[in-house]
């Protein structure tokens, strides 16, 4: 894809190339004192992927709010470009559902490993399947963007739109705190107040998805217990 995306001020776009994924390129930049706001991206025939480098000034458990606002940003970006009948929901902690099918996800990496540590950097990655790969097996729970009425959505336009909406929600978080982020995310949450199974850090958890706490942790309830699943449990990416 030859078209070069245009990003808003505060974001510098960098094509990741073929030798490293955007997340790998962002990780390499982070450990070499890369600048916050650098957004690495790659357009492939069947996938859009990107990763943005951030420099939080809050402890890791608070900085993980960036994951939620990145998800909201994607939902807003796709909503602005796709036909109005296309529905987008967020599957905790970092998945997307488009018209009910799993369709892409976020990932996260950080320099910090404990929840009260302020990370030097944090990276949020985005992966969105566009077309089904030829060797991809059939899974009724999984879909691709162009199979859901989005064939006219340009991957370049989608990435540009995501970057703009990401900044809008990042600014709102900085001005108003995490409350508006949590409320907006929950308004589009997949299976809220329903029984769910969540896999986090290699373990399955089951219960009724009751909402988020003040740190964005999932509240899972059963008849006799309540469990909080922290967003920091997603930190499986290593740089």
UniProtKB/TrEMBL annotation:
Domain of life: Bacteria
Coiled-coil region(s): none
Domain BPL/LPL catalytic: 7-186
InterPro entries for the chain: aa-tRNA-synth_II/BPL/LPL (IPR045864), BPL_LPL_catalytic (IPR004143)
One Pfam family matching this protein: BPL_LplA_LipB_2
SUPFAM superfamilies in UniProt: Class II aaRS and biotin synthetases
Protein name in UniProt: DUF4444 domain-containing protein
